[in-house]
Design goal:
Layout lengths: L8 E2 L14 E6 L5 H14 L4 E8 L7 E5 L5 E3 L15 H12 L8 E4 L4 H4 L5 H10 L3 E6 L3 H7 L5 E3 L3 H17 L1
Parallel strand pairs: 2-7, 2-8, 3-6, 6-7
Antiparallel strand pairs: 1-8, 3-4, 4-5
Protein name: Molybdenum ABC transporter ATP-binding protein
Organism: Thauera terpenica 58Eu
InterPro entries: DUF2478
Length: 191
C-alpha cells in the first residue's frame, strides 16, 4: 500500500489553516511509514538546545523489543513504560495506560512555567477515547499553549473532533515543523 501524499498542511472540516496562519495547535499526520517519533523528538530537543522552553513527552525506542519503547520527558529525561509485557502467547493490546498516565505529569509541567511549546507523543487510541494524554492536551489547548503531537491518518476524524477543527495538520517534514513553529512564535510576539 503506497503512502498518501500529504501537502504541508491539510485543511480540517472547520478551518482552512495554512502555514501563513499562526494556529498554536498542530499534528504531524502520518501513515505509519514515516519516522515521526524520531522527527518529533529531534525537533523538540533541537528547540531546547536553542534555548526554547519545551515541555512534554516524546516516544523513543530504548532497545530492540516493543517492550523497550518508552515515553521520555523532554525536560527531565525521565522514562515511562509505554507497553506492558503480557507474555509470549498474548494477542491483547500491550499498550500500558498506567505508563501513559504516569507520563502525563510531563504535560502538566507546561502549566508550571513558561512554555514555548508542549509536545505530546501521540494522539492515538487512548486519546481518541478520552483517555491517555487527552485531558492534559485539552487543558493546554484551552490555555493557548502551543501544542504539537502526532496522529496517524486513521485517527484524523477523531483528532479533528477533539481539536474542534482548529488543529493544523502538518506533513512529516522538519522544514514544515520549523516554519510552523516560527509562525506561531511570531504570532505570540505580535499578540
Amino acid at each position: 500500500m503506497s503512502q498518501p501524499e500529504l501537502p504541508p498542511t491539510v485543511s480540517s472540516p472547520n478551518h482552512t489553516g495554512t502555514l501563513q496562519q499562526a494556529f498554536p495547535l498542530a499534528a504531524i499526520v502520518h501513515s505509519g511509514a514515516e519516522a515521526v517519533d524520531e522527527l518529533l523528538a529531534r525537533f523538540a530537543l533541537d528547540l531546547r538546545a536553542s534555548g526554547w522552553q519545551v515541555r512534554g513527552v516524546v516516544q523513543c525506542s530504548c532497545g530492540p523489543d516493543k517492550a523497550d519503547i518508552a515515553l521520555v520527558d523532554v525536560d527531565s529525561g525521565q522514562r515511562f513504560a509505554l507497553f506492558q509485557q503480557l507474555g509470549p502467547g498474548s494477542t491483547s493490546c500491550s499498550l500500558d495506560p498506567a505508563g501513559v498516565t504516569a507520563a502525563s505529569v510531563s504535560l502538566r509541567d507546561a502549566f508550571e512555567s513558561t512554555t514555548d511549546l508542549a509536545v505530546a507523543n501521540r494522539f492515538g487510541a487512548l486519546e481518541a477515547s478520552g483517555r491517555g494524554l487527552a485531558a492534559e492536551m485539552l487543558a493546554l489547548m484551552s490555555e493557548g499553549v502551543p501544542l504539537l503531537t502526532v496522529v496517524n491518518h486513521t485517527y484524523l476524524p477523531q483528532w479533528r473532533s477533539f481539536s474542534g477543527g482548529y488543529g493544523v495538520e502538518l506533513q512529516a517534514s522538519r522544514q514544515v515543523l520549523d516554519e510552523w513553529f516560527a509562525r506561531i512564535q511570531h504570532g505570540r510576539r505580535g499578540a
